[in-house]
Amino acid sequence: MTDSYVYAAARTPFGRFAGALAEVRPDDLAALAVTGTLAKTPDLDPAHIDDVVWGNANGAGEDNRNVGRMAVLLAGLPTSVPATTVNRLCGSSLDAALIASRAIETGDASVVLTGGVESMTRAPWVLPKPAKAFPAGDVTAVSTTLGWRLVNDRMPKEWTVSLGEANEQLADRFAVGRERQDAFAARSHRLADEAWNAGFYDDLVVPVDTEGATFGRDEGIRPGSTPEKLAALKPVFRPDGVITAGNASPLSDGASAVLLGSGAAAARIGTEPLARIAGRGVSALDPQLFGYAPVEAAGRALRRAGVAWSDVGAVELNEAFAVQSLACVDAWGVDPERVNAKGGAIALGHPLGASGGRLLGTLAHRLRDSGERWGVAALCIGVGQALAVVLENVTGGTR
Questions:
Q1: pLDDT tens readout for residues 220-231
Q2: Is residue 276 part of a domain?
Q3: pLDDT on residue 131
Q4: Alpha helix ranges (H) inside 2-158
């Protein structure tokens, strides 16, 4: 067994639903993330990439089933570079990285490019295929953008509630009130804006040329957000609820990529690694409690890394909803200021298949810049799952 390392990461800016990236196909977004990441390792011959593992939560339209392979071809990599696409919904691109890390650690691969993509704007409507020709009744088109679709009647109704209702239930269970959620959301926007203004994302984000313009910054950030302004928004899922469009992640478009390799691959890649993958964790619970699943996933990853929460200097937790993020942070007992210090998905956006790669790349760069030794990336996944990874900073000067 050998170790696996993060060598480079890049992503597109994340666009709002029907926003700046609305006219860009997901396979083109994926190709941009591929070329943007490989541009950071110009000494690496792309023909030496052993595999590409890509994440995508939809696959029903222009994602074209195996969008990872499409990205390889559109990016101009040699046709000898293989690729697969994995789907663990919101966790797809982090799952891709974990799958690649296992391949590297077992010796099945030396260099693997991972990532993920989602265009929630361009997700198609689908129709169920009729069992017989010429059905007499109407058929309803179903959006594939987000959430359950074409649900099996055998599924218990409590499992198939909307994502928003599931998190309203989480707010009830853990007594996380509206005021805390709005404050958390406002913080996400403030920190994201500050990080962009300070140049943190300049090295992580690859601009996208759209018709007549260059799109270079995450579109969902609202620098002027305050808890008071967010408090004026109406609840979305219950008349007397606590979840609004302001304290939940938006529908988004974007792509991310992360280059992984063994320690011995440094000479081939042409650069030293940023971080070592030190622990992995996956967990599951009742589908409607999905927002709380990162608690156990992160615990398992830390135990496998031999690290305690007191050792962790940086946390990247996907902000699907403010309430689930707060419930996880409360359960971990970690310093909240260490969580999403460069903003989170409420501000930056949450293109499902791309978010895990964003978390991993951001975490590696945060550790490099801060000198902290240990970091955790985690996200909840619809239908009751979660993934987490522990990174160890190997850039020197760790504390």
A1: 999 999 999 999
A2: yes
A3: 86
A4: 26-38, 67-74, 92-105
Residue 166 belongs to a domain: no
387 vs 284: CA distance, rounded Å = 9
365 is annotated as an active-site residue: no
Q: Active-site residue among 189, 328, 350, 365?
A: 350
Residue 24 belongs to domain with CATH number = 3.40.47.10
pTM of structure: 0.97
Give me the pLDDT at residue 261, please. Answer: 98
Evaluate whether residue 205 is within a structural domain.
Answer: no
Domain hosting 84: range is 4-121+249-391
Q: For residue 328, is pLDDT > 80?
A: yes
Q: What angle do CA 378, 229, 315 make, to 5 degrees?
A: 15
Calculate the average pLDDT of the chain: 97
Is 305 within a domain?
yes
Q: Catalytic annotation on 328?
A: no
For the chain, helix, strand, coil in percent to 5 are 40, 20, 40
Which one is catalytic: 189, 328, 365, 380?
380
